[in-house]
User: Which sequence fits this backbone?
């Protein structure tokens, strides 16, 4: 990972919070070093004074050092708590900002040319891989604070002698390089395997959860469970190797502290109390460099997270806010047939002939396979913004989000009022059903529609398409799953809505009742393919 990558992923971090986290980390590190150093000096000096006799002991002032030691212990604890609180707050804000930016890039993509990422894969990257980057923010304030504290410790070690201080400075200077080399050797490969397995596991969980009715219906639970356990076992093995590597690095840090203390003791030339001060300052200085050890241990996971997010980072474009303003209707060419604004066309043909594909192509969801044009421009040359401004699609398979009924309707356009929602639900023959619910429009739904039946989900999707207020309405099997009476009423209300708004209609239906809405029927076989 280079500096540019780190800077990009830290864009969302609150700089003020990071500065406060740095100050807290610096205070905690210096307090820790002073606490040990002063304790070493105090205990040794008190022991020497006591050994010198009652007179020397009586003359030894223990009140001020004792108060200082207590104060340093309190400041160290408070500063450590403050550093963790502030740095994690900055990290959570940074991750939320990064998720928003990357999701915005995904949302801004033209569906016809966007990378082929499943919902599970995209979710795994936006959740797990970004979560792995938390260390970038949490450890950022501690590293410079550790360096400053190490320099401070070297200064205290001068009390034990300049040779001891020089030796400590050399050891501390080499420590970050040693930790980084050990981390690369011990953690890089298992971190890569663990990141890959975690992403695969998240993707599998999300995709299998979406298909849970089929998994249950066809008795595939055992096979799905076995597949998930295989992925989990691979991830567990990689994580075990990763933790073993982290344990070795932690042991290396402890051994390094022992070597540093022994070297300072061997090179010390000052009186015993000052040697004790320098010895414990040296020990604390190695402990203060633990931030570099934690960074080294997590670095491989961070790099893997960044690598897996590369696909999302490379996306061009930013989401554009919905204006809510209506655009002028334009004509549509279906092969050689020109359909004027406000026209009502039913596309007919046998199953699998491409009717749904035409609607999805007009909505900008898929590349066109037929000769289609909008306002005289071939469909492949039309921008996604242009298609989005012209067409509102109620698809055959209604897609809902986890949220309330109102949340699902508000996806249509900004600023929707409750009366507008109720009016659209009335056209979709869903108003009485929603009104009978205790929470009404605030009734929560899952992605699968929750308490709504298949036909009700389809009608909720239809209401959402009506609320979009686009010049053209694209309906794919709008009455599928409805009884005859409800179907007839829905067709009647839709006809009234089309008359009132002047919206155009592109309809696909195998049921005869909705076909009455169309002024003309076009067989898909007559529309030339590309």
Assistant:
């Amino acid at each position: 990972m280079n500096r540019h990558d780190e800077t990009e992923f830290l864009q969302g971090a609150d700089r003020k919070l990071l500065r406060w986290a740095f100050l807290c980390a610096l205070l905690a590190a210096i307090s820790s070093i002073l606490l040990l150093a002063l304790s070493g000096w105090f205990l040794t000096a008190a022991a020497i004074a006591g050994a010198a006799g009652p007179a020397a002991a009586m003359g030894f002032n223990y009140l001020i050092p004792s108060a200082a030691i207590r104060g340093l212990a309190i400041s160290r604890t408070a500063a450590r708590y403050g550093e963790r609180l502030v740095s994690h707050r900055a990290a959570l804000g940074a991750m939320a900002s990064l998720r928003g930016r990357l999701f915005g890039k995904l949302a801004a993509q033209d569906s016809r040319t966007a990378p082929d990422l499943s919902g599970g894969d995209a979710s795994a990257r936006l959740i797990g891989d970004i979560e792995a980057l938390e260390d970038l923010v949490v450890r950022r304030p501690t590293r410079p604070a550790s360096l400053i504290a190490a320099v401070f410790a070297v200064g205290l070690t001068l009390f034990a002698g300049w040779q001891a201080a020089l030796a400590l400075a050399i050891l501390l200077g080499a420590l970050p390089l040693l930790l980084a080399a050990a981390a690369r050797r011990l953690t890089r490969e298992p971190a890569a395997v663990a990141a890959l397995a975690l992403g695969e596991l998240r993707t599998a969980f999300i995709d299998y959860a979406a298909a849970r009715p089929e998994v249950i219906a066809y008795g595939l639970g055992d096979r799905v469970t076995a597949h998930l356990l295989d992925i989990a076992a691979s991830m567990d093995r990689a994580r075990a190797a990763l933790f073993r590597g982290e344990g070795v690095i932690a042991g290396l840090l402890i051994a390094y502290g022992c070597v540093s203390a022994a070297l300072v003791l061997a090179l010390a030339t000052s009186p015993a109390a000052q040697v004790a001060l320098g010895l414990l300052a040296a020990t604390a200085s190695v402990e203060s460099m633990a931030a570099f050890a934690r960074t080294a241990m997590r670095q491989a996971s961070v790099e893997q997270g960044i690598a897996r997010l590369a696909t999302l980072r490379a996306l061009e474009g930013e989401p554009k806010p919905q204006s809510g303003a209506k655009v002028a209707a334009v004509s549509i060419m279906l092969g050689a047939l020109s359909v004027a604004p406000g026209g009502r066309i039913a596309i007919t043909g046998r199953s699998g002939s491409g009717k749904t594909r035409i609607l999805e192509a007009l909505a900008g969801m898929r590349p066109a396979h037929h000769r289609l044009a909008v306002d005289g421009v071939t469909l492949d040359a039309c921008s996604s913004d242009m298609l989005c401004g012209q067409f509102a699609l109620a698809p055959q398979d209604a897609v809902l989000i986890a949220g309330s009924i109102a949340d699902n309707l508000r996806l249509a356009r900004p600023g929707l009022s409750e009366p507008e929602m109720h009016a659209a639900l009335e056209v979709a023959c869903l108003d009485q059903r929603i009104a009978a619910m205790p929470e009404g429009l605030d009734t929560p739904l899952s992605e699968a529609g929750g308490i709504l039946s298949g036909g009700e989900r389809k009608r909720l999707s239809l209401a959402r398409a009506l609320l979009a207020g686009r010049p053209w309405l694209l309906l794919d099997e709008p009455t599928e799953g409805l009884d005859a009476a409800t179907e007839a009423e829905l067709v009647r209300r839709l006809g009234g809505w089309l008359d009132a708004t002047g919206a155009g209609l592109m309809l696909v239906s195998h049921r005869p009742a909705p076909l009455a809405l169309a002024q003309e029927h076009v067989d898909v076989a007559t529309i030339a393919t590309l």
The first strand starts at residue 332 and ends at 334. The mean pLDDT is 85. The longest helix spans residues 162-210.
